[in-house]
Amino acid sequence: MSSYTHHDEPFYRKYIWSTDHKIIGLQYGFTALFFLLVGFTLMMIMRWQLAYPESPVPLVGSIFGEDGILLPEIYNSLGAMHGTIMIFLGIVPLAVGAFGNYIVPLQIGAPDMAFPKLNAASYWSYLVGGIVMMSSFFTAEGAARSGWTSYPPLAVIEVGQTLWLIGMIFLITSSLLGSINFITTIVQLRAPGLSWMRLPFFVWAQLVTAFLLLLAFPPLESAAVLQLMDRVAGTSFFLPSGLVVSGEILDVSGGGSPLLWQHLFWFLAHPEVYVLILPAMGIVSEVIANNTRKPLWGYKSLVFAVVFLGFMSFIVWAHHMFITGMGTAMSDFFQTTTMIISIPSIIILSAFFISLWGASIRFNTPMLFALAFLPMFGIGGLTGLPLGLAAADIYLHDTYYVIGHFHYVVAPGTIFGLFAGIYYWYPKITGRKMSETMGKLHFWPSLIFMNGVFMPMFIQGLAGVSRRLWDGGLEYAHASGVLHWNEFMSISAWLLGLAQIPFIFNIFYSLKFGEKVGKNPWDSTTLEWTAPSPPLPHVNFEKIPEVHREAYEYSVPGRKRDFTPQTVPKKG
Amino acid sequence: MDIPYTVEERSDTGLFNAKLGIWLFLASEVMLFGGLFSAYIFLRFGAPDGAFHEWGQELNIPLATLNTLILISSSVTMVMSWASLKLQDIKKYKLYMGLTLLCALGFLVIKYLEYTAKFDHHIFPSTNTFFAIYFTLTGLHGLHIIGGMIVLFYLWIPGRKMWLSNSEQFTNRVEIVGLYWHFVDLVWIFLFPILYLL
Ligand code: HEM
Ligand SMILES: [Cu+2]
User: Ligand 1, atom 37: nearest CA belongs to which residue?
Assistant: First the structure.
């Protein structure tokens, strides 16, 4: 063995400044779970104001001033930071940074990522970005207030945005380094015999995700640089001539365009929504194949669908801009591409549903979350179609309907997928299973309260209630008929918070008291289950595995066992 | 167990890891500058007719032409330094790498003269959208030059000892940095006409 395999590294090399993809994956995982909790807490606070407008927030109210009321400026800060934290500091780092880092090298039979130092740099850049973002809460100006979309001119003239932009540049750098690493690893380090069509679907999902991050993030980086210039160097990239602020004409050269920002932003942010969902789909595919004890239905069409979806996601961005007056020709083009991109998503979802057909399903906790993912993502996807049609979007744009739509995709969709992954791969990471009882105690309330939070948003949105309202719509006559839902949603959100306690507890409890298991507790076929649990530091496998078959050989008729790992040689 | 294909090529992809890595990085760089170029186009169409051209008259075309020549020469010397390594001639490598760095430094000095001349005439990024995008694009390009110079310098002197221990990997490193350097050169080839000539 060469110098690469140190077994007696000092603590900080092993757990802090580590280059082992497994440790980095765990660092990503814990940091991201922490940020998810932060983002969710901000929302639980905001939901108080929405349920009981202008009454003092309990417990934490004193932070917001003497009377404890959440003022509009702070509401806006919390809203913008909720979105930013959830997406850039929570979901993406968990789905890509944690799951991608830990699982991908194992599933392709590699000793580590292709560039271990770059991998560490990517995590640390993410952490710095996160700290910069969070520190903006403690500055005199406060945190950014212009939504996670940061539309100018508001974002340029409103306080608190500079740190947001700087934080963003770190986060973009981080995902750039990460995506180069993922693609190189998947292309170069596949174990002998692991041809493209033998890759587990999860690896495909991560590969396409990495390409989206690689190519979609840089335009946002350039946009962030331009907005930073507008704020610190006095340029007018996004400021039109003659802009009036507080009754006075703004003293800038003008001539810029707010629409330019929107184009650059959505060029990233549409592919970004697939970054949020694809890794979760990948996880769900693994869990479904394993617990239906059947090959994934239509593996090839899944692969083609996900690649096609990756390509298409670069030419749909302006469906977020139908009401900007960009013109009907543009709208026509983008609503057509949007309808086309829904096809691969439907193929993927249908293939998962068909996989369940006639299976003798094992209803363990990972499978419950994976099963719940399907209808929840389905609701999110289907409610998106009207938003992709220009005519319907004129009515629905910027209402709670939109908030309901994308949360069905990212909250009961992606987050359930990620939960499934945590329960599924926990035994690989720790050598123990998580408690099933607590898992179910986590699953059922989460399912119920998720729907309690987000379903009424469709009702409010269809009635025309706008998003980003500090009073939840109290001032508007048209909202009066549906406002009583606010309290219901808020209580659901707080109960949803409580429902996460068994989960958090389970993670730590099972470390010590979980049922001890061997290499392959779920009787699975893919490579990660041939490594020891936990896999060996730095090298993962005792010997680089050799692959002889496709990813999901479950219940093949005539075989003794109902699964055949990829490493079993073919006879004759 | 070492990470495979750090030096030798994988037979079915024909690449060693860092080579694929640098191409991916350059792809993302294309998107970064692509975003800024589209901003340029957007702003140019948004400005009054002919305004961009008129504002551009303030720029110093002879200096920029000289800079273009300097950068192209540096790309040539970069290739020569890699070729010298392939021919096992470390002396020539040192010479050509040194020349590349010298060109890069020359480019920055001229850029500095151009910038200060603008400031002396009270032209700043805030003057109009043309100078906003001019300073942003050339500034970002300049940062890429500086970043490249740091790596080139490392390979020129302190990192050169790898030549003795692992000459193949060292040659690979020079090759991928060379790819980056050509890309930065190429960006300038685009910047020069759209900013100075159009
Ligand atoms: C599961 C618990 C969650 C709850 C209860 C929740 C609730 C909400 C609510 C009520 C709003 C609208 C606020 C307003 O318009 O004033 C909102 C906005 C938003 N949420 Fe969530 N959310 C959750 C999870 C997530 C996740 C997982 C993500 C992302 C991956 C996310 C991303 C966003 C974004 C981007 C916005 C828009 C922010 C803006 O206005 O710029 N949320 N959320
Ligand atoms: Cu979109």
Answer: A83
